C-alpha cells in the first residue's frame, strides 16, 4: 500500500534491501540471544516488503496474459538460491573460520549482507518506476510512457488510477479485507506453502541417500535447476492458454507422487527422483502467484494490499511446516 502511494519502486524496494542488508551485517556482531532475536525479527520485517512489492511492480507494466512468465523469472531467483545457497554457505563456513579473529558464521552474515547492499545500490539506477510515475524524458519517451499506460487500460477495460481509485489509497485496504476471494486465495497459498516446507529440510533429505556432506549439498542443486527451467516453461504456456488452475493442480499432483516415493522406499535412485518431483511443486506455486495478480487487477491500491496480504498470510504455512 505504501509503495502504491509513493509510486517510486526504484527507491522503495532498494531502500528496503539496503536496510535488511545492514541488519544482516549486524546479525554477525550479535553476542546474545536477545540481539539475534531482534535482528532476525527486523530482518524479516524488511524482507517482507520486497516480494509483494516486486510482484506489484510487474503487474503495473505487464498485462494479465503476460504476468505468468514474468513472475516465474522473478521467482526463479529464489529457486536458484535454493539450489546453491546451502553449498555457498557451506563453503563460507568451511573456509572463513577464524579469519581476522571472527567465527565463520559471522562472516556468513557479513558477506551476504554486503552483497545485498551492493545489489540494492545498483537497483536504484536499474529499477523503473510505474508507467504513470516514470520521469518524463528518462529511459522512456513520452510516447512510450503513454503506450505503456494505454496497454494496461486496454487490458482491464478501465484506467489504472483515476477511473478505479475511489476513496483514496486507504480504501484499497478495506476493499481487500472485505473481499472473500482474498481470504480463499490466502488459504490456498498457505496450503501450498505447507506443502513446500520440505525446502527447509532439503539438504537433510538429500543426505538420506548416504553420501557425504559436500556431495549431498551438490545433489540439492539439480532438482532446483530443473524446477527453475520447468517453472519458466509452465508459466509461459499458462500465459499462452490463459489457464492457471490445471497447471497448479498438475504440478502438485506430481509433488504428491514424490512425497509418496520418499516415504515408501530407501532406494537411492528412487529417492533422488522423489526430490525432483517434490521440487517441481514450485512451478505450480509460481503460477498461483500470477493467478492472484490476475484475479485482483483493479484498483491498484487493492491489488497492492492483496499481494502483500496473501504473501504474508501464506507464511503461516512455514510455521506449520517447521
From TrEMBL:
Entries under InterPro entries matching the protein: MFS (IPR011701), MFS_dom (IPR020846), MFS_trans_sf (IPR036259)
This protein's UniProt keywords: Membrane, Transmembrane, Transmembrane helix, Transport
Transmembrane segments annotated in the record for this chain: 12-29, 41-59, 71-93, 105-127, 182-202, 214-233, 245-263, 269-292
An example Gene Ontology CC term for this record: membrane
GO molecular-function terms, A-Z: transmembrane transporter activity
Subcellular compartments: Membrane
Lineage: Eukaryota, Fungi, Dikarya, Basidiomycota, Agaricomycotina
A Pfam family reported for this protein in Swiss-Prot or TrEMBL: MFS_1
Residue intervals of the Major facilitator superfamily (MFS) profile domain: 1-322
Membrane topology: Multi-pass membrane protein
Entry keyword annotation includes Membrane: yes
Protein name in the entry: Major facilitator superfamily (MFS) profile domain-containing protein
Organism of derivation: Hermanssonia centrifuga
